[in-house]
Amino acid sequence: MQIKKAVIPAAGFGTRFLPFTKASAKELLPIIDRPALDYIVREAIDSGIKEILIIISPLKEEIKKYFGRNIELEEFLTERKNFEALDLIKPYEGVKIEYVIQYEQLGLGHAILHAKEFTKDEPFAVLLGDDIFYSDTKPATKELIEVFNKYDGHILSTMTVALENTNRYGICMPKPNQKGPVFELLSIVEKPDPSEAPSQIATNGRYILKPSIYKYLEVQEKGTGGEIQLTDAILNSMEEEKVFSYDVKAKRYDVGSKEGYVHATIDFALRRDDLREHILKIIKELNTLL
Ligand code: G1P
């Protein structure tokens, strides 16, 4: 079955980015001049997806505003024949963005449950807002879709993390004796202590899920951090679904952390013709001070 729909949870409080997130959505923090969330929406579109659901909290109506039209601004730019700027604010053609409000922040699993009406009985992509991927060849979600087209099951994007960081991720345990690059999983656990981690293979924010996941999310009890975890529902769904992991080739940035956010900003600036030289100059100057 083709993947036509994407779900982007964006309802968290964003406590790691306080005080900014007191009044603004973390997902609208710009990486240079484009909100982090917009890079994620573009990744979905570039992966061939035309229907996107963004799960927001009641405080995040501004996300709708960002992806909607601003007629006054369009008119202003048209009058001044500023077509370059006009091009930047045009809504995505042929793409439908919908919203659902998550009133209580009970965890990622609880958030995904809000997508049931939208995805119905189709498999769908999940793109987490804290993880931004860059690729000049194939978007991360497209890589996963290609895996999904060959393997029947949920597909999780993964990467290898340092042992001391296993308590920040969903950690996979592959079945033994597999060659890869796609691994069938035996088990998965949310944020295990390094002493208990079954591996260093961590999920990193992109999933293709089959609709059977809802059955498990609906009855999923709170887990790590007192939250309803997607990881736990994936584990429980293994009684009927296969689950596969795949290390995507696209480069990932954890923009939910301050270091990752700054790293992404620098790297994205260096990739832009209008900024590269200026930023390199600043970096060179800084280098002489080190
Ligand atoms: C979430 C998931 C976790 C996953 C991570 C990837 O955690 O619960 O399994 O590994 O995203 O970024 P969070 O970072 O939202 O706490």
N- to C-terminal distance: 54 Å
Radius of gyration: 20 Å
Work out the oligomeric state of the chains in this entry: single chain
Tally of DSSP helical segments: 11
Question: Given this structure, which CATH class of the largest domain is correct?
Answer: Alpha Beta
Bound molecules: 1-O-phosphono-alpha-D-glucopyranose
What is the CATH topology descriptor of the largest domain? Answer: Spore Coat Polysaccharide Biosynthesis Protein SpsA, Chain A
State the helical fraction.
25-40%
Descriptive report:
The protein has 2 domains: 5-256, Spore Coat Polysaccharide Biosynthesis Protein SpsA, Chain A; 257-290, no CATH class. It has 11 helices and 13 strands. It has helices at residues 36-46, 61-67, 71-79, 83-89, 108-113, 116-119, 140-148, 213-218, 230-237, 258-270, 276-289; strands at residues 5-10, 30-31, 34-35, 51-56, 96-101, 124-127, 131-134, 154-160, 170-174, 182-190, 201-209, 243-247, 251-254. The strands form 3 sheets. Strands 5-4-1-6-11-8-12-10-9 form a 9-stranded mixed beta sheet. Strands 2-3 form a two-stranded antiparallel sheet. A hairpin with a 7-residue loop joins strand 9 and strand 10 (182-190). The longest helix has 14 residues, at 276-289. It is globular. The mean pLDDT is 96. The protein binds 1-O-phosphono-alpha-D-glucopyranose.
Features:
290 residues, alpha/beta, Spore Coat Polysaccharide Biosynthesis Protein SpsA, Chain A, 9-stranded mixed β-sheet, two-stranded antiparallel ribbon, 11 helices, 32% helix, globular, binds 1-O-phosphono-alpha-D-glucopyranose
